[in-house]
Amino acid sequence: MNLPFKALSDPTRRKIIMLLKEKDLTAGEIAEHFNMTKPSISHHLSILKQADLVSDERKGQNIYYSLNTTVFQELINWFFEIIDYNEGVNRDENR
Amino acid sequence: MNLPFKALSDPTRRKIIMLLKEKDLTAGEIAEHFNMTKPSISHHLSILKQADLVSDERKGQNIYYSLNTTVFQELINWFFEIIDYNEGVNRDENR
DNA sequence: TAGATATTTAGACAATATTCTAAATATCTA
DNA sequence: TAGATATTTAGAATATTGTCTAAATATCTA
């Protein structure tokens, strides 16, 4: 749970996530949205990948990035725990 | 939205949140749970406070810290947007 | 009011993170 | 296979963050 939180702590990476929410994009297309070099964006993508928040797939010369919703679900569960949301969720208290 | 994400990126601060989820605690009681000096914990508390994730209230010599669920709700909404959860939420698509 | 307790503030230092340029790797196409 | 395009890797510079010690502030009580 540490890597995803670290990954989300940077605004550039959160913006990348917002872009990928709309549709899958190549590393180059992502870079176009930022005032930053491609190696820097590549580094951010690598951190998102390590955190398992995105996945990548090469198609010819391009590498397409896409969102990995699984870890986001886990994060949402973490937050629910904080605010003690427990309707419909398996919890000892409900048994 | 930047401060809360930054605040949550540190494991010590997330552990503090987990402690406060159970009950309000003084700065000293919080510090007892960590292998770290009190000034360091105080600094972490200050970051959580700036991010509006916790609030503090002095009672005599002690300062009690407690969780501020509002910002957590906003964070959950941010995550819902990512995974495109939109039941019961006001969205253009539903109009 | 002096001393004890709880906590924060200030300032320094080391560890991490972000960004850059230059170079390397992978793939496509003429 | 040579050159073009897309992307990553390596390494360095700078900025930010986390932690510490020492000192300051606030409150309580004898």
From TrEMBL, chains A, B:
It holds the Pfam family HTH_5. Residues 1-87 form the HTH arsR-type domain. Keywords: DNA-binding, Transcription, Transcription regulation. CDD domains: HTH_ARSR. GO terms for molecular function: DNA binding; DNA-binding transcription factor activity. InterPro entries: ArsR-like_HTH (IPR011991), HTH_ArsR_DNA-bd_dom (IPR001845), HTH_MetalResp_TranReg (IPR051081), SdpR-like_repress (IPR047796), WH-like_DNA-bd_sf (IPR036388), WH_DNA-bd_sf (IPR036390). This is DNA-binding transcriptional regulator, ArsR family.
